Amino acid sequence: MGPSEPADFGNVPKGVQFREEDYYKSIRMRYVLGVQLLVQYQCEKLVEEFKVHPIICGIAAEVWLRFVAAKRVFADVWANDVIKDAEAQEEKYRVGSSFKYKNEPRNLYRERMAIIWCKSLKKTLPLSSSLAVSFLACHIAREAVLPTDIMRWAIEGKLPYFGAFPRIVDSIKQIERTHQCPSITCPLEANYMFRPLRALSLQKLESLAASIAQTTGLNLPPVNFCAITSRYLKQLSLPVEKILPYACRIQEWSMPPELWLSANELRIPTRVCVMSILIVG
Mind telling me which residue stretches traverse the membrane in this protein (predicted)? Predict the structure, then answer.
């Protein structure tokens, strides 16, 4: 059994036979590594360009590893369970002509297992989780970085996300060359694996970050009210020294639950809560 030619990651030797296990291990490792690289790129950019404290790099790395471990995508039964679940559902994964992908492993319905495994990974560890982990690291580090910042920088291309897949390919190739373990059984293009289709809503980003924190067992602090309020006051050209003390007193007295990240997308965003207290102050 041999894979179709992966245009991004290199050519496949002709006549080489591969097992089903070779396919899913290659796809899984490349996808997880690719999203991990996204987190790394984003944290590096936050530190270098947006002057966020470098501690976020270590925080993000730990959160990401705990998130991957909690999702159990490296469990021995993962690949088989994904295929069984796909066969039990109505959704179909047929992509491309049968001739081009004829040597790839397929399930009972002749669907490409490579696509099924990749779609499962993208659902379990979505590309957007890289932005959520980066934002979560800033939150834990008590930085005054908001979901609006993360998404605006990503959309503007200042934060690696939408157009990062060519760089991911180059990095994966370099890593594989360094460790002398090139994986040639990944028949999926980087454009399909690592290019986001759409932007997250601001509330989805915040709720996803909270969900990751819950999944990894993190006990999060509230947002850094003083830092965010001070930032708002400066942006509005208002006297920080006059208004900030009153706003902080109101916050300390009330401590509304909306100052904590929530996995509930319908709840009031933390930034709205901060602004409402600031208006009262």
Answer: none
Cα–Cα distance between 257 and 254 in angstroms, integer? 9
Give residue for tokens 């090139």.
Answer: 182
Q: Residue 4 above 60 pLDDT?
A: no
Instruction: Using alpha carbons, select from 106, 121, 124 the residue that is nearest to residue 193.
Output: 121
Four-residue CA torsion sign, 93, 98, 33, 134: negative
pTM of the predicted model, to two decimals? 0.88
Interatomic CA distance for residues 259 and 252, integer angstroms: 11
Exposed / middle / buried, residue 20 (Cβ in 10 Å: 0-12, 13-18, 19+):
middle
User: What is the CB neighbour count within 10 angstroms for residue 214?
Assistant: 15
Q: Is 90 exceeded by the pLDDT of residue 66? A: yes
**266 vs 281: CA distance, rounded Å:** 26
pLDDT digit string (tens) for 130-164? 999 999 999 999 999 999 999 999 999 999 999 99
Tell me how far the alpha carbon of residue 205 is from its chain's centroid.
Answer: 10
CA distances for 250 relative to 3, 7, 175, 267, angstroms = 63, 58, 51, 21
Long-range residue pairs from 168-173, CB within 8 A, at least 24 positions apart, any chain:
168/34, 168/37, 168/38, 168/194, 169/8, 169/9, 169/194, 171/37, 172/9, 172/30, 172/33, 172/34, 172/37, 173/9, 173/10
Neighbours of 129 (CB within 10 A): 24
